[in-house]
Amino acid sequence: MNSQAIVTTKSLQSIIAKIKDGSIKRIVTLTGAGVSVPSGIPDFRSPGGMYSSLRPELLTANEKQKRSMSAEPTLVVDWDLFRVNQFPYLEVRRPFILGTAKQQWKVTLAHCFVQLLHDKGLLQRHYTQNIDGLDHQLNIPAEKIVNVHGSLANAACEACGTEYPREEFCFEVKTKIKNIYDENDLEAPKESSNIRCKKCHKPAVKPATVLFGRNLPATFHKSAAEDFPNQIDLMIVMGTSLAVFPAAGLVNRVYMETPRLVLNLTMVGVDQGLDFGPFTYEEDDQVRNDAIVLGDSDQTVLHMVKELNWLQDLIPYQSYMCPNSISALNDALNELPSSV
Ligand code: CNA
How confident is the model at residue 281 (pLDDT cuts 50, 70, 90)? Predict the structure, then answer.
């Protein structure tokens, strides 16, 4: 990961200059699964991500449902399937549900970058599509974070809305949902059984995350209505395919003159109208002044903080970071010229 090449567009230089000279004052961030990948949590759409590694034959489902999941892996996180069969979702998500409860994964440099934007008084709002709770492991005030797709930190009945204490829910998952990733797991049952709501008795209890086909939380609409009528000077988009709406549509809620800066492993956003201009340092006739930094999120963030002279500001957050990010930061610090 550390040796990954970084590719940038020329408009990045003007964005960096404007952050440095104080003309960029209000930044909105939008993140996705890619920012948590260095911590060890796979995303959905990359090779090796949840969709490509899905094995419907291991899941508790009828043959038709298995065939549908093979053809369309997104079905495993879709309301259409969950409302008739809760097992595929819970079986696939079992380690993620139990792991986040134990804080098994730690923040990456991308999470710390959002924290730095807050520390410097630049963060208007942080919209995260992630459900892993890593955004809440640092010190960004909760009201600045919008969990666009909910969070694994809470559980509720999808049918009647009754909330479930997290520990109780995790105990149910551990004892009632089979472990498709490790058949020798002695704590897990060999067959899955329903987790029923104590109030309506439907087998619909799940983490309070948003399945495809369900509405986003009211806080998403409220925050977006507050943020986007106002001047936002920069939108930073990190680690997302921008394939899931309405979250991806946020990139078009800022004013025409507001640049959008994408930090991502692969090229994204062109379908949403982002205009990165030519990949060259010679041309500067760009329409939107959007910019992209292509590479692993830890490395693209290091690129940004070095350009901004903020590298040392990450040191206080090193103890919160995942091992990959700690070593990426150490490498970058070791490359600094010594001051003597
Ligand atoms: P996605 O569609 O899987 O896209 C991820 C994007 O991140 C892709 O464009 C990748 O190229 C990019 N990417 C992958 N690895 C890296 C890396 N190391 N550095 C930089 N970029 C990288 O995921 P989205 O977030 O766009 O889709 C939204 C879904 C995914 C939301 O509903 C999430 O809840 C869901 N999700 C969340 C998590 C999590 O909470 N950590 C994990 C997996 C999926």
Answer: very low
